[in-house]
Amino acid sequence: MDSLLLLLGFICMIIGILGSFLPVLPGISLSWLGLLLLYLTKAVPMNYWVLGITLAITIIISILNYIIPAKGTKRFGGSSYGIWGTNIGLIVGIFAPIPFGFIIGPFAGAFIGELLYDYKDHNRALKAATGSFIGFLASSFINFMLCIIFFGLFLTIVWQNRAGLF
């Protein structure tokens, strides 16, 4: 049973790292689930502090994933139309059958939203869409770094308890 939990935890970690770039997958949540599965093995003693702190970080970052692109839009002069466009574009981009739709969607959504707000000011719409794109990149980078940290923690725990796991 420990081998199965270890394998599932490792798979969650790998998919979590991939999910840090693909919004379809909840990257940080899957990485945390990988840590939880590792702690559920009999060979690894339960550490509620590590699980609690990493869960709190996971929840905070998951919430920020929706706020950061919208704040990027606002910071670059976007209106509420651009913020709504960013969020709608992100959802549409995830499900659109185009390459890199999850990147193009928020940008296009913010641009279209700003044009709906003021169709004459193309420069402001482009600036707000750029802010959305930068916010998305910042959010993805934070997710990726946190998933890598969780993966390093996973590997460290596995290494420390290798005698009981293998």
TrEMBL record:
One Pfam family hit: DUF456
InterPro entries registered for this protein in UniProt: DUF456
Membrane-spanning ranges: 6-39, 46-68, 88-112, 133-159
Keyword set, alphabetical order: Membrane, Transmembrane, Transmembrane helix
UniProt keyword Glycoprotein, yes or no: no
Stored PANTHER family: DUF456 DOMAIN-CONTAINING PROTEIN (PTHR39165:SF1), IG HYPOTHETICAL 17883 (PTHR39165)
Protein name (record): DUF456 domain-containing protein
